[in-house]
Amino acid sequence: MNKEENILGTEKIGKLIRKFSLPCIISMLVNALYNIVDQIFVGRGVGYLGNGATTIIFPLVMMTLGFSLMVGDGTSAYLSLKLGEKKEKEAAKGVGNGIIMGIIISIIMSSLFLIFLPKLVMLFGCTEELKPYALDYGYIIICGFPFMMMGTILNGLIRADGKPNYSMTTMVTGAVLNTILDPILIFVFNMGVKGAAIATIFSQFITAVLNLAYIRKIKSVTLNKESFKLEGKTVRKLLALGISSFINQVSVVILVAVENNMLNKCGSLSKFGPNIPITVLGIVMKISHILTSIILGVAIGAQPIIGYNYGARKLDRVKKTLKYVLTIGTVVSIFSFIIFQTIPDKIISIFGQGDELYIEFACMAFRIYLMFCFLYGVQIPTGIFFQAIGKSVKSAAISLSRQLIFLVPAMIIFGNLYGIEGVLYSGPFADAIAIVIAAIMLTYEVKHLTKAKQVNEADKPVENTQESKDIFGRHLVITISREYGSGGRYVGKLLADRLGVKVYDKEIIERVAEETGLSKEYISDYEERRTGADIINDNAMTGGDELFVAESNVIKKIAQEESCVIIGRCADFILKDNKDVINIFIYNSYEDKIRRATEIFKMNKKEAEKEIKRINKYRENHYNHYTGRTWGSPSNYDICINSDFINVEKTCDIIYDMIKEKYSK
Predict the structure, then answer these.
(1) pTM above the 0.70 mark?
(2) Which CATH fold topology does 477-663 show?
(3) Where are the chain's structural domains?
(4) What secondary structure does DSSP assign to 421-438, as a single string?
(5) Pairing outcome for strands 477-482 and 502-504
(6) Over the stretch 614-628, which tens digit does the pLDDT of each residue have?
């Protein structure tokens, strides 16, 4: 275990959060402030129509950022994974392919956006008054998208290479430069929205150049010409790893497009007209983005702390870290709520002056749309928490629920029923439902952590005290496949003791970790686990694919070295070509499973039912996928036995007698 891992598992939680979260907060805020700074200077130099134009172009920016994060996050994850597996050539291939894909995608996207920009702005709810400003701003800002994409992609790679401070510095440099150039080009040279766009792309260019300069210094891999040759398999894998980041950004694009169109439609029927609502709500969303950036920064910074301690089964530290994150997030959210409710007119005035209707709608928008923002400190960290503990489906559900599942339909329904105020009230409506769901899921998971601690203690690897020797004068290997709740692991332990050989269960994890360089926590999280998402996304690289090969090699070596008992992990299939292998399947009734879970693991009946179904489904999916057989089918095994028909101890006696009868002659 390296020093950093020791720190994650032993250092004070508060100190760790300060160390890991502060750079994340700064990076997130820099991204948020890029657009805010433009809005401030454009509003003061051009007026609110200029700000409306930036709101219209914002979906294109988010779409580009989505592709950037898909390539960047996917490449970073691929790099980290391959380095962990000690496959440096494949890691270098991933980096080179990621950079080339970024260049190709950025050029194609920019070209398409430039060609279709007039049609795109209308798709995003642009009015005739806003259109000239939107086109002036859009044509220039799109030219900078290749710089934006390369800067973002390389930022992720630099962080994965162990230089987060360098990455943060280049981002801050670009943001500061943008802040300096905006007033010069807008006020001194009187360039309006064009000046804001030029300031932005020049700043992004500098960030991209600084990041490109780092590539020659990258320490984790050695890049050569071969690294930059596109390989279909590598590209598919790194894009699959980054797809969730892309989906998150695209959901924002869909949201803004629907929102602008509804504001255009409903605003035209109100006293405010279409331009004021589009401009104001765009500003409100970007201001709220500052709030969410701080909370996200804290949560993302805490992610490795939660992930490590969850993998190490230090569940008290997991809960303590979560408590810190929720407390900080809630404090920030409540403070922001007070500001939004008390001085919305002061906030909107930062972005330039407007008439009475403009100020009136701004006050309405802040107070109504962000009515429940004081609870963001729960919803946002919950999504990151589930991501940190490897439950990506729950994480995605929480992250996407507000924007796509609740907010977009609510805007359309409420807007058509209640007009412009209905569009505003869709915000707190979606927030309320999303927060309730997040809170329920989080409460259940925290309770489950307490139960899991008890399960871990019962599930610790058994200590092997037996010397390796033959069974009845033969080199025999016994594999135990089992249903969850059947007591199969305990049967295997009793049988090994009776036969005088070693039992291999969690010990296999240690062997795989030693031979592959993967962490024991990573192996524990992914082995014998194939989720519905893995089944749907068969082309994506999963942890299970790598681990099945690694565990197969270890199991074959163990079987060759000594007589033993091996628990689970498709050992019956892996050793199908070996002689003198006895394959056993342990099962029991559903009622006995529940009884065992409630008595031994101290679960209530409802929790037991859910856990039994979940784990057995994982085992079934895993076994069926990697073996091509049907899990639990009698034809796969030499002995199938109900462990609770007479009891676990006598089940062991029966299996022992059967083996003795066959091999002691």
Answers:
(1) no
(2) Rossmann fold (3.40.50)
(3) 1-11+270-458, 46-219+231-258, 477-663
(4) HHHHHHHHHHHHHHHHHH
(5) unpaired
(6) 888 888 988 888 888
